[in-house]
Amino acid sequence: MGVASGRAEFGPRALGNRSLLADPRGAEIKDKVNAIKRRQQFRPFAPVILEELAHEYFDMPTGWPTSRYMQTVAYCRQPDLYPAIIHADRTSRVQTVPADGSGIRQLLEAWFEWTGCPMLLNTSLNIRGQPMVNDRADADRFETLYGVRVCS
Q: By three-state DSSP, how is residue 147 classified?
C-alpha cells in the first residue's frame, strides 16, 4: 500500500508521508517490493515501528531511545519473524514513530491492533529513477502503472 498524505518530505528517507508500506513478516514481501520498485533483489528495506515497542524487537544502541529519521542500525531480536526488513547481517535501519497523532502513527496503531505486529516495511513512494509521488495525479499514475493502491 502506498501513502501520499500531508506535507511532502525532503531527504534520503521515507518517513511516512510518501511511503510504500508492506507487511514485514512475509518471506516473499521483500522480493515483491523490490520488483515494484525495480530494484536489485538484494537491496534491503527498513522497518517503521511504534516507538515504545522498538526495544522489544530491536537491540537499539545505548543512548538511542528513538530513531525517528532511520539513522539507527540495530539487530532484530527475531529476524526469522520479520524477513522483509532484515539485512544480510540481521540488522535493520529502524525508524521509530512517537505517539504524536501523525497519520503514520495512526496507521501503525491500527495495523498493530489488527495483526499484533507493531511495524511495517517502509520505503519511498517512487520507482528508481522516477520522482516521488507528490499529488493525487501522481498517485493515480502510480496505481495504474504498478498496481499499488495509494491512499491520500
A: coil
